[in-house]
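From the methods appendix. Each design record in this collection lists the tokenized structure first, followed by the designed amino acid sequence. Records were kept in a plain field format so they could be parsed without special tools. The example shown here is representative of the layout used throughout.

RECORD:
FOLD TOKENS (412 positions):
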């Protein structure tokens, strides 16, 4: 092994993000490599929720919409996320789930290219994105060609018949990261619009939506943003499209004047038109406080640490790859990598269960992928070393062969 315990401990001591770990509650002894699926609990969140429940809900009740700014939460939270993804504060709003936000933005984008009939995406895109597009197509009488292609064929699939190119920046299985700037430019050269899913990008590394000229984007609140299970998602619409992007989920919260209670729908002129109904105040409040951990965090520094963590993991895993047949699925090139590392292994499910039992939490994605997420705000380099050590133990002692690790749970 080329990096010794002493070396990683030195890396941890000199880590500019090291003190951030204190902002999170991390169970003692647990090595958590799943912050890409559900981020850990920021320490400030329980007190905020306690206040929202006891004071705002319990005592101030309906007055809290004004008194405690409940109504403004979606925009306030959106503005905090905007800084992390290279958007203006008035281009992002927190709302609904990622799936629903894909529905809203895809439909709005298609209407901006009414003469075109093709939606391009990646066959390996997260299923909900593909499923939502199928529902949108059914709603529009099936008149669209859903051009799902492999990554190698993506650029060739974009031509002048395409309305929308809909991609997830980082592949949820392999951790492959698209070149957002290049694909967005190519999309625009053909007169189409871009819709990026930032589920595995927001909070994981710097994203530059406006610099890349992106039209629409969506993303999750509960992954790298640590907003808690089922946290509100977010939606980005570039300012230049806001007045024209029609919100087909035309609910009262997206109306120009919700409390005028008019019978006719008139969309708000700004990003608020992407909201639909009453915001989930508890979830919004948790996400609002969770985002404070990013205050003063330089996303370039965060990215540097993320790459060092994933490099270290890949390097430490090399002997296990040759000894036990793990196959690296994640690109080695830094610019093509998100903040996760994935390995294929035919016994992937049982191995992951055995590893979790040893106190290292990653996850499994069908058909055979072991997935490890690296969250630079709270992970230590020494934990990377220890995680590989425990995986080595699982393999050397064939712990994964125990029958209890073969049983498939509902959530993997
Ligand atoms: C996690 C994830 C989602 C989740 O969508 P929900 O509506 O929150 O369930 C969507 N898209 C991608 C790419 C994801 O990784």
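DESIGN:
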């Amino acid at each position: 092994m080329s990096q010794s315990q002493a070396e990683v401990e030195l890396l941890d001591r000199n880590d500019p993000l090291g003190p951030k770990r204190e902002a999170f509650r991390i169970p003692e002894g647990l090595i958590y490599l799943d912050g890409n699926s559900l981020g850990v609990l920021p320490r400030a969140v329980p007190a905020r929720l306690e206040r929202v429940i006891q004071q705002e809900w319990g005592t101030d009740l309906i007055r809290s919409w004004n008194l405690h700014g409940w109504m403004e939460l979606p925009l306030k939270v959106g503005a905090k996320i905007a800084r992390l993804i290279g958007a203006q504060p008035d281009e992002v709003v927190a709302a609904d789930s990622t799936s629903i936000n894909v529905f809203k933005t895809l439909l709005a984008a298609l209407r901006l290219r009414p003469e075109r009939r093709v939606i391009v995406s990646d066959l390996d895109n997260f299923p909900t994105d593909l499923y939502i597009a199928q529902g949108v197509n059914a709603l529009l009488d099936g008149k669209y060609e859903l051009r799902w292609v492999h990554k190698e064929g993506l650029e060739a699939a974009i031509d002048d018949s395409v309305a929308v190119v809909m991609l997830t920046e980082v592949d949820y299985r392999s951790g492959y990261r698209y070149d957002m700037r290049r694909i967005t430019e190519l999309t625009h050269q053909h007169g189409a619009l871009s819709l990026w899913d930032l589920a595995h990008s927001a909070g994981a590394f710097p994203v530059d939506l406006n610099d890349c000229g992106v039209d629409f984007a969506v993303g999750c609140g509960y992954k790298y943003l640590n907003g808690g299970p089922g946290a509100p998602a977010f939606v980005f619409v570039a300012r230049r499209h806001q007045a024209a992007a029609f919100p087909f989920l035309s609910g009262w919260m997206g109306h120009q004047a919700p409390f005028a209670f008019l019978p006719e729908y008139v969309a708000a002129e700004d990003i608020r038109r992407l909201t639909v109904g009453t915001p989930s105040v508890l979830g919004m409040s948790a996400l609002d406080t969770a985002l404070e951990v990013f205050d003063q965090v330089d996303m370039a520094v965060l990215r540097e640490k993320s790459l060092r963590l994933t490099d270290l993991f890949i390097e430490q895993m090399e002997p296990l790859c040759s000894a036990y047949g793990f196959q690296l699925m994640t690109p080695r090139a830094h610019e093509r990598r998100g903040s996760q590392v994935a390995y294929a292994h035919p016994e992937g499910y049982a191995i992951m269960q055995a590893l979790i039992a040893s106190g290292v939490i990653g996850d499994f994605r069908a058909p055979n992928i072991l997935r490890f997420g690296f969250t630079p705000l709270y992970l230590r380099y020494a934990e990377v070393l220890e995680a590989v050590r425990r995986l080595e133990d699982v393999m050397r002692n064939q712990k994964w062969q125990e029958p209890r690790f073969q049983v498939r749970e509902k959530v993997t």
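APPENDIX NOTE: The first strand starts at residue 24 and ends at 25.
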